[in-house]
């Protein structure tokens, strides 16, 4: 990882990056790497009744600060949730623009077996935009019918604590009863992935594209 300095996280929706690789983000920031987080929808149509429609924009700002991401490194697009396939070309153009502006050394995006239509669009267009870049796919167990985990990032307890704190910033989701938005699940998954690679905690990823320089 010594030749990897600029890292881009692609989240179809706010909170996807935190769930998929929040511990790794905390570790990268701690190591002094330049981490960018781009989300493509604040899911206004999915916000629980009675809350501001832009509540997830407020929450992602809090969560990214919790992980140590610089304010200027958070990028939020406003595509309609569950309608990404209709805007495939626009999304691709936004991704290409990010590639040219940031020139990331490593990109994280949803894995190729994620069944959510928005996640699939970000995976497919992300692969097109960043085909000459290292790419790792993060897991979302509630969206993955199967998952290939052939890359692991070792984490310490403090990284998991930061991930838990970041996810806790999404009060609209936690209070909505999302079964995966709780400390028990987050720790158990990190512990499971750690056991698979011989450490206490880890996050697992699918190798989509890897370049050795």
Question: SSE layout and pairings?
Answer:
Layout: E1 6-11, H1 16-30, E2 34-39, H2 55-67, E3 74-76, H3 88-102, E4 106-110, H4 117-129, E5 134-138, E6 151-155, H5 157-168, H6 171-174, H7 183-197, E7 201-209
Parallel strand pairs: 1-2, 1-4, 2-3, 4-5
Antiparallel strand pairs: 5-7, 6-7
Helix pairs in contact: 1-5, 2-5, 3-4
Can you count the beta strands? 7
Question: How much helix is in the residues?
Answer: 40-55%
CATH fold field value: Rossmann fold
Largest β sheet strand count, sense and barrel closure:
7 strands, mixed
- Give the overall pLDDT as a whole number: 96
Please identify which CATH superfamily we are dealing with.
LmbE-like
User: Could you spell the SSE succession in H and E letters?
Assistant: EHEHEHEHEEHHHE
Low-confidence stretches: none
Query: Shape, please?
Result: globular
Gyration radius, in Å: 16 Å
Q: CATH class, anyone?
A: Alpha Beta
User: Span between N and C termini?
Assistant: 11 Å
In spatial order, strands of the major sheet run 3-2-1-4-5-7-6
Number of helices: 7
What proportion strand?
15-25%
Which structural class do you get from the secondary structure elements? Answer: alpha/beta
| Reported CATH architecture | 3-Layer(aba) Sandwich
Number of domains: 1
Notes on the structure:
The protein has one domain: Rossmann fold (3-Layer(aba) Sandwich), CATH 3.40.50.10320. It is 41% helix and 18% strand. The protein is built from seven helices and seven strands. It has helices spanning 16-30, 55-67, 88-102, 117-129, 157-168, 171-174, 183-197, and strands at 6-11, 34-39, 74-76, 106-110, 134-138, 151-155, 201-209. The chain has a seven-stranded mixed beta sheet with strand order 3-2-1-4-5-7-6, with helices on both faces. The longest helix has 15 residues, at 16-30. The termini are close together.
